[in-house]
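Exercise: predict the fold of this chain.
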Amino acid sequence: MTPETLYEAWVYLAASPLLGLTTTLVVYIVCNWLYQRSGQWPGLNPVMASIIVLVTLLKTTDTSYETYFEGAQFIHFLLGPATVALAFPLYRQLPKLKGLWGFILGGILLGGLGSALSGIWIAELLGASGTTLLSLAPKSVTTPVGMGIAEKIGGLPSLTAGLVVLTGVIGAVIGPSLFRLLRIRSDIAKGIAMGTASHGIGTARALQLSEEMGAFSGLAMALSALITTFTLPVVLQYLSYY
């Protein structure tokens, strides 16, 4: 079969909404298999690897994102139920949560604002534009919330979406190694850090490591999005960023 024939077959199949769904599932399964075979080497994180493969595939075949998303939106829809399902492992950790809620809220508040402001200050030192700074600010909250915040404060939602995904992937890749380096042994502390800094992608990685870590990461992800929504615009306005 010639390359021209393969390209024509892909163009034909691309018209089917199920192609995006099937391609996404197959790519993730293969990337996850490679990740497990490598002994869970961070450089082969299945989320990061899947994104790279899918973007390369779409660019190579000149397939628009809109065409791809017609099928992939079924997976996107499952993001809501998957997030709600995180309440179950958290419920099992309720006794621990009751005694630590003050520390958890304080950690999430400081972690969320620290992540936003440190990113802005570093980008500012590197000469980034004002729009880029405002797009960067909500990089550590889940994508829909981050895009909404960016739009409200004058950033670019599309740029924020890419930065959110990149932040989550980086956190999922280096987070476990960083915990070992800093000798952080508490799964509760690890979970709060992963959820606050790396939202859903970090939470998915935390769930792979332990149920307790995943439960507190899911809690941190949700509370971080809520707290950041109300506090970040006020803080940025006070600091005269918009």
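Check your answer against the key: Residues 84-238 form one domain.
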